[in-house]
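Sequence in, structure out.
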Amino acid sequence: MTLDDLPAVMRVEQSSYPYPWTENIFRDCLRVGYSCWICAEAGNVLGYIVMSVAVGEAHILNVCVNPAQRRTGLGRRLLASMLRLAGERGADTMLLEVRPSNIAAVSLYEDMGFNEVGRRKNYYPSAHGKEDALIFAKAI
């Protein structure tokens, strides 16, 4: 992902989430050197993933697939790529948060060997206030 990709990334982000990241959050992730990757075809962003790695731990901060590309295995491939990259960068554990209401994502993470290790109370904004986040972890 580069700064030039952000308009297309933002279109996918805004079409995917009721409370999307801002462009400035993506800019900050690029600025500090997080692993920010897109999957694109013919100039269209199909999906993206953002990961930080520090002190032996990788953290998936955002993973998103364009609604038109869902259920094609792209999210799985993006996550598998980050698991390999995290291992190459010395991480032994990968963490991520997910809304309990995001059944498809929870199912994907469990299928890929992630385990629920905790919960962050009132982590995500929602139409009814706040929603908890499930914390998932996987040994790399």
